[in-house]
Amino acid sequence: MAYDATKLKDFEIAEQAEKNMPLPYEWQEKLGLQKDEVIPYGRICKLDFMKIIDRLKDKPDGKFIEVTAITPTPLGEGKTTTSMGLVEGLGKRGMNVGAAIRQPSGGPTMNIKGTAAGGGNALAIPMTEFSLGLTGDLNDIMNAHNLAMVALTARMQHERNYDDAELAKRNLRRLDVDPTRVEMGWIIDFCAQAMRNIIIGIGGRMDGFMMKSKFGIAVSSEIMAILAVAHDLKDMRERIGKIIVGYDKKGKPVTTSDLEVAGAMTAFMRNAINPTLMSTAEYQPVLVHAGPFANIAIGQSSIIADRIGLKMFDYHVTESGFAADIGFEKFWNVKCRFSGHVPNVSVLTATIRALKMHGGGPKVVAGRPLPEEYVKENVGLVEKGCENLVHHINTIRKAGINPVVCINSFHTDTKDEIAAVRRAAEAAGARCAMSEHWLKGGDGALELADAVIDACKDEVNFKFLYPLEMPLRQRVDAIAREVYGADGVSWTAEAEAKAKAFEENPEYKDFATMMVKTHLSLSHDPALKGVPKGWTLPVRDVLIFAGAKFLCPMTGSISLMPGTSSDPAYRRIDVDTETGKVLGLF
């Protein structure tokens, strides 16, 4: 049944839906799982992916559906809502369907974005558990990451305090870490701008090594990136051992293996490697695994979750973070390359609200009422804004994938505005469906489900944007021109020197190119809406994630530690002291 989304808040809909949510033993029966493949965690469970993959290894993969979006407003345009609605719609059509989504970070949950559980009747449940730590994967990631920093800083202190003979007695060799070239920092799962730059080791000789350090948000950790791209536990262990924490005074990388901490880090991650099983509000299965941001990381749920989903379901839906220039580009050129999976269709989520913004509408600010242009009919703004939609359609088509545009419907949308989007989408060669999943759940997503089923019958001529043999700077230029629409790329002297060094080192030839860019514009400048013309992409640095095998060109002013706003969500979250229920999540 669909709940009255116009009157009930998301956490209230979730509370009602959760009353009949399948429990772990019911999922086992419903999905045909073996008893030892289900790992209960209260009313939810993890799935032992290696056992499931081994049992289903000879089963053909199902249809693979990716969900992305046009360039969003700061409010987001509902990719997870669309993913949940599509799964519910396919379920209404009698399909064996499931999804994989990312786990939300506590930073956005307690800030302005919310829980990322979807919304209305297109919702992932149980919502409270999803929003507040789930089965502990983020905690495992933070422990594993911060343990590496504990190992590094302790070693630096001991090497300062003891000579080589004393180190040898303690079975240690001198790593001689350069304190000005410590690449790794600490992580915390909040938007804590006060911790972006810190000094550690203040005090005496037994209080650590005094130096500059930093905090990033947990989802920016390389451990999170490794969880997203690892194929199995062995692969994860090997990748964790290659993480570069800093450089010695001769410029040689110092890794977690050098610190002899990689095994202990992997021990923290032994449970996190298994996806968590949740549900839509209409009780289709939803796998939750990994949660990297898309503008500062890979922005995908895990390859492991897709491996399971493609074996368990006839239609498997996976979501990419932010817009097609970021999330889809990384899905296309990184995740698909690493996994070997080829998608059948990509769903491009659009809202009339975002199209009006790209057409020249007033600034949209999270936490403030929308200007009246966004709640009254204005077909002209929509038509102008469709330039952004068409740009993203063309990006998806360059991959050889068939796009389906989903108009994520709001009650303020008019027939003429929706018709304008259909005309633009179809003229650009995409199917288009209007969906009311937020209001009506699966019944409101039948048109979208039918369009996706139809698109899955088309032939896919999948191809990557660039070959791995292409040098890093040429790859960045290709992404900037072909995906972002830039005229070219400019490099700071430091960034270009790093890029050249990476290109000349054969060890990095097969590393993925992981762009770091704002999600609020096709360009590096969040203020530039629509389809900016006549601009150059500035690259100011290149980071390396050696375990994940990423080279990360940094553009604009992106920070690995976002800030908390003046009106964060935590001001409205509380607990009912009579029932213990969490109130105010959205």
UniProtKB/TrEMBL annotation:
**Keyword Nucleotide-binding included in the entry's annotation:** yes
Per its record, how is this protein called by name? Answer: Formate--tetrahydrofolate ligase
Entry's Gene3D superfamilies? Domain 2, N(10)-formyltetrahydrofolate synthetase, Formyltetrahydrofolate synthetase, domain 3, P-loop containing nucleotide triphosphate hydrolases
InterPro entries listed in its UniProt record: Formate_THF_ligase, P-loop_NTPase
Q: In which pathway does it act?
A: One-carbon metabolism; tetrahydrofolate interconversion
Q: What is the top-level taxon of the source organism?
A: Bacteria
Q: Write out the residues that bind ATP.
A: T73, P74, L75, G76, E77, G78, K79, T80
Q: What class of enzyme is it?
A: ligase
Question: Which Pfam family, giving just one, matches this sequence?
Answer: FTHFS
What's the name of its gene?
Answer: fhs
Q: Which GO terms describe its biological process?
A: tetrahydrofolate interconversion
A Gene Ontology molecular function term of the record: ATP binding
Family stated for the protein in its record: Belongs to the formate--tetrahydrofolate ligase family.
Tagged with keyword Transferase: no
